[in-house]
Design a protein that fits this description.
Distance between the termini of chain B: 42 Å
Shape of chain B: globular
Strand content of chain A: under 5%
Structural class of chain B: mainly alpha
CATH topology of chain B: ABC transporter involved in vitamin B12 uptake, BtuC
Helix content of chain A: over 70%
Number of strands of chain A: 4
CATH class of chain B: Mainly Alpha
Shape of chain A: globular
Number of helices of chain A: 14
Oligomer: heterodimer
Number of strands of chain B: 4
Strand order of the largest sheet of chain B: 1-4
Helix content of chain B: over 70%
Order of helices and strands of chain A: HHHHHHEEEHHHHEHHHH
Radius of gyration of chain A: 22 Å
Chain lengths: 336, 282
């Protein structure tokens, strides 16, 4: 294989290597605590991917945690009251979140820009108020307990209560599926249209594109992914309650996306989510009271040096390596 | 309706209006929402706690001092953090990161325990045979004076004119010799100072802890969209609407009034997406 072909295949090879690494990682490193951090990071990946999807259609949602809550409560109710199996509850969480997002979306997406952001902020608060006060369904602050699922595949029985490993593989699978979906959308005609809706709404409308249609599509898809994440999270914690879905969660998604890099649909949010949740948890343990201060300062410093996110490193790093091997003192001529 | 509830709603309204007008000012010039605005409110409350409660300085002097200090912090942040970063989304995330910076810093300095501030105006006054808490009345009066002063500053001074010009047409204002960058630094200072004043006058009525900034920020955001983005009058109307709903409905129907406040915002935005007094956005 010649060099050019190898270079073109490199991202794919690296990606495959990364996926294989994530699959065999827990088999090599047997650290229960690290595993639990990674599972939460996976949930955050889905959450950040959802935020990024809405962002790519030009809208800035400040209430994504509401959809995490809808998915979480729907999943918990389906599992504990209706007794549905694990997979169906996950799907049910995603679907109910998507339905809520669709119905709300056709109404609130009509207000563009900042008004949409504030409306979603209000929605996030409404979700928490309902969760806290609708005692007959959500049991208020006590929340709903969910039993760990027992999945039977043929002869094989997996009891989720004894080991966290199945959760890890399921969330890895979910993240890969969501990433593939958003990546495909980004590369397709739909992705192109969505980008044009975001960048030039007036022009797109003149070109015959129905703005609302594409905004609602992206909003609903994002809510579906977020809802599945919510249902999974509830299963993983075996409990659901209002504190899980505070308004601060929605801003965390934004921080993750910007740190990872907002201009890439998939890799930015995933990288950001993993890094923020890993270091966030580590800081929580080692710094305790100092944590908010250090976290905030680190975020500001990162944005200062890499305003386009960590994804930028893939361009910066090779340039930096090249600059090391160049002879010193030899300034290239300025282009004419 | 008991008069005490009415004065309560006025107190809440004046807090929301002071917060919202600072947010609107910063938004109109810099084009971003300052999510750390609530934390400047919290800093103002702590400044009153230290200056008025601990050091025993006169209430009005400590108010002015706290506004000056917090305003200066705002100016430093605009000049040395926001302006070098420049891009709007990144700047918004910086303000979100500033929330945890300020909360963490104050927790370190003052501890997580809530403090209370003694009232500067104890006792009650009788107006037309109705006994009202003089502290609450004084708060409303101070807020009204501040809002009128802000209005006069924006409408009647040369600096206010420069500010309006920079908000409307930054490039054209620059061509006419207005230093837009300097104006935006000043506006950030004024906005943060207003938030600090709101925190300062509210501190004796509520307790003071590192996390009090969250609720006023959300309400101020709702107030500015009810009124319409970028207009001071809109911020005033939005603040009054939310304050009235917040305390009167709470008196009659309890906790669910919060749901109605948020619901009403969405309903208003549905029928007038540009806010009650705003210009429509593209």
């Amino acid at each position: 294989m010649d060099k050019a072909k190898l270079k073109a295949k490199l991202p794919l090879i690296l990606l495959l290597a990364f996926i294989i690494f994530t699959i065999i990682f827990p088999l090599i490193v047997k650290d229960r605590f690290l595993l639990s951090i990674l599972i939460e990071a996976g949930v955050m990946c889905l959450f950040a991917l959802g935020f990024a999807a809405v962002f790519r259609s030009g809208q800035f949602s400040l209430g994504q945690a509401a959809f995490l809550a809808v998915g979480g409560y729907a999943g918990a109710l389906l599992a504990s009251k209706a007794g549905l199996p694990f997979w169906l509850s996950l799907l049910g969480g995603g679907l109910s979140s998507a339905i809520v997002a669709f119905l709300l979306g056709i109404v609130i997406l009509r207000m563009g820009g900042l008004y949409f952001s504030i409306a979603t902020l209000a929605l996030g608060e409404i979700a928490i108020i309902i969760a806290k006060n609708w005692d007959s369904v959500t049991s208020g602050m006590t929340g709903i307990a969910v039993d760990a699922p027992i999945v039977k595949i043929g002869e094989l029985t997996i009891n989720f209560a004894t080991t966290k490993l199945p959760y890890y593989y399921i969330i890895v699978l979910l993240v890969i599926m969501a990433a593939l979906m958003f990546w495909r959308i980004d590369r397709s005609r739909l992705g192109t249209v969505v980008r044009s809706v975001a960048v030039a709404p007036v022009m797109s409308e003149h070109a015959g594109i129905h703005l609302m249609k594409y905004r609602v599509i992206m909003f609903t898809l994002a809510a579906f992914v977020t809802g599945v994440a919510g249902a999974f999270y509830v299963y993983y914690l075996s409990w659901v309650g209002p504190p899980l879905f505070s308004g601060a969660q929605s801003t965390v998604a934004l921080i993750m996306c910007v740190i990872g890099g907002l201009w890439s649909a998939v890799s930015g949010p995933i990288i950001g989510a993993i890094i923020v949740s890993y270091f966030g948890t580590m800081m929580q343990i080692h710094l305790e009271g100092l944590r908010p201060l250090v976290f905030g300062v680190l975020v500001i410093v990162l944005i200062w040096f890499m305003p386009n996110g960590l994804v930028e490193l893939q361009y910066r790093f090779p340039a930096w390596v090249k600059s090391l091997f160049k002879k010193k003192g030899k300034v290239p001529d300025a282009p004419a | 309706m008991p008069p005490a509830i009415f004065i309560d709603s006025l107190v809440l309204s004046s807090m929301y209006i002071l917060m919202a007008s600072g947010l609107v000012l910063v938004f109109s010039i810099m084009g971003i929402l300052n999510f750390a605005h609530g934390q400047f409110y919290m800093l103002g409350a702590y400044a009153i706690f230290y200056l008025f409660q601990q050091a025993g300085i006169n209430f009005f002097i400590s108010l002015a001092l706290s506004a000056a200090i917090v305003g200066f912090v705002g100016i430093l942040i605009e000049r040395y953090i926001m302006r070098p970063i420049g891009q709007p989304i990144q700047a918004v995330v910086v303000t979100i990161a500033l929330i945890s910076v300020f909360e963490g810093l104050i927790t370190l300095i003052a501890g997580p325990a809530p403090h209370s501030v003694t009232s500067a105006f104890p006792g009650n006054v009788d107006i037309f045979g109705v006994s009202l808490s003089s502290e609450r009345l004084a708060t409303v009066v101070i807020a009204v004076i501040l809002i009128i002063a802000l209005y006069l500053f924006i409408q009647r001074t040369r600096l206010g004119l420069a500010l309006r010009a920079a908000a409307q047409q930054p490039v054209a204002a620059g061509l006419f010799g207005i230093q837009v960058a300097r104006v935006s630094t000043l506006v950030m200072g004024i906005g943060c100072g207003l938030a600090a004043l709101a925190g300062g006058i509210m501190a004796p009525m509520f307790y003071v802890d590192p996390w009090i900034g969250g609720q006023p920020l959300v309400m101020a955001l709702l107030a500015i969209v009810i009124g319409g983005m970028g207009s001071l009058g809109g911020a005033v109307v939005g603040g009054i609407v939310l304050g009235m709903i917040g305390s009167m409905l709470a008196y009659y129907i309890g906790f669910w009034s919060q749901l109605i406040s948020f619901g009403i915002v969405i309903v208003i935005l549905l029928f007038r997406p540009q806010g009650l007094f705003g210009q429509s956005e593209k």
